[in-house]
Design goal:
Distance between the termini: 35 Å
Structural class: alpha/beta
Largest sheet: 6 strands, parallel
Number of helices: 16
Radius of gyration: 22 Å
């Protein structure tokens, strides 16, 4: 009998709403989530009262709850950066978790609560309007001030900070910092619920992290509370956002099963574990180990003792800033790593050691490594893998790849496995690495659109995207020819950054 696990996702995008339901569809947990209609739409927050009613009703007989605090309090990830709520109102919303635990004392509550990000660029696409004017300056003000406070700033940085202050209108900075301060107070309120045994396990993910700045300062405050409370086993903090739901559902599933799989990590270069991926703030290996632990597994010291192998297919010593770099790859890709060695080892593990293998494709930010995908296709390994992901940040890809690999290890290659693998190859490789930039450069301007605006969720651009994905898949993914169908292609936020694909693997092909 399946155990009921209620899910309140981070937002309505497919990566947060659809991926978890697909990954865990044929497992020992039944993921029950709210109807898409009560979630928000990008900057429009979800209907909080209906979310609360959904949670109170569905958790009464549930085994577990995986809950996004940002959705619970603010109505989604983007509204968490825009709201004008009072501290009193937000704390009242958080009380729902206490009520859930009171109604069902045995329920396991796994939560995640983002530390508010501070993007390094000027854009109001997901931030307040003024961020388009001075977003870069707001980031630099925090970055340089943090370095000054730590005694690390150079004389030039001291002068630069004074110059930066003058470029930001005081009311803009006041609005930004007030919201940060309030959100931090609610981060700490979530931590209090761990101390009170209301929340059983909590992750503070860091979206768009940096070694210095406002987010780093907030991390320091939270980390001190974790340390002082001896809460390190119950509260994790590492880079991620859109992968955390999958990770927590994996942890919930493994608790239901009563097991902790061992994962062996394999890199492509001696320097790979020490690189700091784009938009993250720590060594790659530190984050990989956190992702494995948070998913409910443990790190193995050898492949022979492991239950499953994770091939981290990164660059040699750094992550490239985007898939467009593949036209002229750097030494990190061509010289400082050994991709063939990694793939030969993956095939050896699968065919000789009989170990499932996951591949986290993180050589490039926001897209797959086309050389890797082409080699997997040529070698006939696309569906030999337990999982594959390479769609966004390193953390997002790891947070997709590891949970999916764990479900494959437990349940084998189900229909859901094949559907999700096809989705990953079409989205991560074809859309993110080829079609997104192609459509942006060739089709938008003539229609009066741009990267951040394509007018419709289901429109002419989504139809063009679908056609281009199919066309390029014939070149790079010949193994898939005739074996899949795209039932729907759509642009969830009516922009080019993400795509929604309802895909189906056709078992016999037609």
């Amino acid at each position: 009998m399946k155990q009921k696990v209620v899910l309140l996702p981070l937002d309505e995008r497919p990566c947060n709403y659809v991926f978890p339901q697909r990954i865990f569809k044929e497992t020992d947990i039944e993921v029950v989530t709210c109807d898409l209609s009560i979630l928000g739409q990008k900057k429009t927050p979800a209907k909080i009262d209906k979310l609360q009613a959904f949670l109170l009703k569905e958790t009464r007989d549930a085994y577990g709850l995986v809950v996004s605090i940002d959705m619970l309090l603010y109505g989604g990830i983007v509204p968490s950066r825009l709201h004008h709520e009072t501290e009193e109102a937000l704390r009242k919303r958080l009380e729902v978790l206490r009520q859930i635990k009171k109604n069902n004392p045995k329920i396991k509550i796994f939560a995640f609560d983002l530390i508010m990000r501070c993007p390094q660029y000027s854009s109001s696409d997901e931030e307040p309007d003024y961020y388009a004017i001075c977003g870069r300056e707001i980031f630099l003000s925090g970055y340089l001030q943090n370095r000054v406070e730590l005694g690390l700033a150079t004389e030039e940085e001291h002068f630069r900070l004074n110059d930066i202050w003058e470029k930001i209108k005081p009311e803009y900075l006041q609005d930004f910092l007030h919201r940060r301060e309030l959100n931090l107070k609610l981060n700490l309120a979530s931590l209090d619920l761990v101390k009170e045994n209301v929340i059983d396990f909590l992750i503070f993910p860091q979206d768009d992290a940096s070694e210095f700045g406002y987010t780093a300062k907030d991390q320091t405050v939270i980390r001190k509370q974790i340390t002082d409370g001896r809460l390190a086993f119950q509260v994790y903090m590492y880079p991620d956002a859109d992968g955390v739901t999958n990770v927590l559902l994996s942890r919930m599933l493994l608790q239901v099963k009563g097991i902790r799989p061992l994962v062996y990590i394999r890199y492509l270069s001696p320097a790979s574990p020490m690189q700091v991926p784009c938009l993250e703030d720590r060594y790659l290996d530190v984050s990989v180990r956190y992702q494995i632990l948070a998913s409910g597994a443990l790190v193995a010291t050898s492949a022979s003792e492991a239950d499953i192998v994770l091939l981290v297919a990164s660059g040699g010593d750094k992550m490239e800033t985007g898939p467009d770099k593949q036209h002229n790859p750097s030494r990190s890709i061509t010289v400082l790593r050994n991709l063939v060695d990694g793939l030969e080892y993956a095939e050896y593990c699968i065919k000789t050691l009989k170990k499932p293998v996951m591949i986290a494709d993180i050589a490039y930010l926001n897209g797959a490594d086309l050389e890797l995908v082409a080699l997997l296709n040529k070698r006939g390994l696309l569906f030999e893998l337990a999982s594959y992901a390479g769609w966004n940040t390193a953390a997002n890809s790891l947070g997709t790849c590891i949970p999916h690999g764990i479900t494959t290890m437990l349940y084998g290659k189900t229909k859901s496995y094949y559907d999700f693998m096809v989705l990953r190859y079409l989205e991560d490789a074809m859309y993110c690495s080829i079609v997104r930039s192609l459509v942006t450069n060739q089709y938008l301007a003539e229609r009066g659109y741009n990267y951040f605006y394509v007018a419709e969720t289901d429109g002419v651009i989504s139809q063009i995207v679908k056609e281009e994905i199919i066309k390029h898949a014939q070149i790079y993914l010949s193994e898939l020819t005739g074996k899949y169908r795209i039932n729907r292609c759509y642009m969830p936020w009516a922009r080019m950054f993400e795509v929604g694909l309802d895909v189906e693997y056709l078992e016999k092909g037609n």
